Amino acid sequence: MNRRGFLKNGAAAASGLLLLKPLTAFGYQANSAVRHGLLGCGNRGTSVADSFSQNTSAQVVALADLFADQLAAGRSHFDQLNQKLGRAPIDSKLLFRGPNAFEQLAASKDVDLIQISTPPFFHVQHLNAAVSAGKHVYCEKPVGIDIRQAGEALKIAPRVRSTQSVDVGFQCRNAPPIAAIAEKIKAGALGKIGAVTANYNAPASTEKTRAGESADEYRLRNWLWDRALSGDILVEQNIHIIDLCNWILGARPLKATATGGRNILKHAGDCWDNYQVDFTYPGDVHLSFSSTQFGDYGSFDAGLKLYGSSGMAAIPYSGPMQITGAQAWAWQDAASSATGGGKFAANGAFQDNLAFADRDKERTFIESITSGQSHNQIAAGVETALSCMLGRMAGYQRREVTWEDLLAQGETYQLGMSISQFA
Ligand SMILES: NC(=O)c1ccc[n+]([C@@H]2O[C@H](COP(=O)([O-])OP(=O)(O)OC[C@H]3O[C@@H](n4cnc5c(N)ncnc54)[C@H](O)[C@@H]3O)[C@@H](O)[C@H]2O)c1
Question: How far is the C-alpha of 361 from the C-alpha of 169, rounded, in Å?
């Protein structure tokens, strides 16, 4: 359906949101919806696009996916949601399937914003298509799984126009309790920061199978187990904690030593199930990071602690968010922090301290589009991805790796299949 079709549709008008082009190069009309296309209709993609629809003026009008069943599930989900919100169903002309779906979505004139929620191996390729087509982009982390992709992303960054906004999916920074404690730490509440510890202990991811699928399709559907597709657990999932550390310290690691391996997992794939990394930041500040991804004990634990000359800050995903010491402080705004939690959420929709992380991230991003105060988070996203690759390389090579070593080695992962077979 073209825009005129939408406007003729009473459901769209009833929602109070008109699907209109920006009035000026800098902003959207106050009541116009940002036309949202979701690329990758899986667990996280659906959850985030749903949250955009419920919390912002974005309206899902297009979907794209490699696989027909995923696209159909997405269509069913968003048709129901759009109906609930008094909006038009998705036009079948804006449903794109197959290996070129990302290009077809990018070429669509009926889409303003592309949300990239495909497996990490494809992020940079999909980012390139979306940026080149002039779309606003919400790209899931990581921005690149290897040095080659990171380099490509850094070449895309300067091509983002001043009227385009590009965000990377580090929503933890926007969680109200984390935003509040980070502001205090950056203002000096801990004195001189001397050391950081952090952990990310998550359950194993679950297997997805389909009758009659090929080995390649199995890999794609279980991409979390696959180094080339995911970047391994440090780059794919633990990245949220490394990102918080970089952001709060205002620096990236200079070097790392690490160990780890695959001690428990026996299923297919080659990702490790545990990492122990020592990152060195400027000023000889060390981050001691520990990660596991196996088992399922009904609980989940992730967070970081920063130790300063006059105080300590505890930043858990779940549990008390506080500073002890000279400038003691505790997060107490119950209205902005849900109760319960301590449970892993595969779609990133955690409870407790992260309860409103997605909502606030999405609102900030849409505001950057409608106000014309555009974001371009590609380079920052790449820096965090590279920080994780530093730890990963140190682990795989069982040696100290400096940032310069990491860049010089030009690590490149091969997918080992052609996705054109899924046309
Ligand atoms: N920010 C967070 O907290 C958070 C949480 C979970 C996942 N993620 C990220 O979100 C992304 C998606 O994760 P997920 O859990 O939804 O995975 P998923 O497997 O549930 O969904 C991925 C979707 O992409 C589709 N796809 C695969 N290859 C494609 C291609 N080449 N072109 C088009 N579609 C393709 C799949 O068919 C599937 O529908 C990943 O990058 C992951 O790292 C972020």
Answer: 8
What Cα–Cα distance (Å) separates residue 122 from each residue in 18, 170, 271, 377?
A: 32, 18, 17, 18
> Which residue of 44, 96, 122, 217 sits with most ligand 1 atoms within 8 Å of its CB, as the best mutation to test the pocket?
44
The string of pLDDT tens digits covering residues 288-312 is 999 999 999 887 899 999 999 999 9
Q: Kindly state if the Cβ of 251 falls inside 6 Å of ligand 1.
A: no
Coil, strand or helix: which one is 367? helix
pLDDT single digits (tens) 108-163:
999 999 999 999 999 999 999 999 999 999 999 999 999 999 999 999 999 999 99
Do the Cβ atoms of 391 and 277 come closer than 8 Å?
A: yes
What's the rounded Cα separation, in Å, for the pair 302 and 58?
A: 31
- The residue count of the chain comes to 423
Count Cβ atoms below 10 Å from residue 301 Cβ, excluding itself: 16
**Dihedral through CA 377, CA 312, CA 346, CA 382, nearest 10?**
20
Q: Is the distance from CB of 83 to CB of 114 less than 8 angstroms?
A: no
Predicted TM-score (pTM) of this structure: 0.93
Instruction: Tell me the best of 115, 118, 271, 419 to mutate to test the pocket of ligand 1, counting ligand atoms within 8 Å of each CB and taking the most.
Output: 118
140 within 8 A of 243, measured Cβ to Cβ: no
Calculate how far, in angstroms, residue 230's C-alpha sits from the geometric centre of ligand 1: 10
Q: Which atom of ligand 1 is nearest to the CA of 346?
A: 6
Q: Is 125 in the pocket of ligand 1 (CB under 6 A)?
A: no
Q: Is the CB of 370 under 6 A from ligand 1?
A: no
End-to-end CA distance of the chain: give it in Å, rounded.
24
46 lines ligand 1 (CB under 6 A): no
Whole-number Å distance between alpha carbons of 410 and 400: 16
Residue owning the nearest CA to atom 4 of ligand 1: 348
DSSP category for residue 414? -
Rg for the chain, CA atoms, rounded: 21
Residue 119 contacts residue 43 (beta carbons within 8 Å)? no
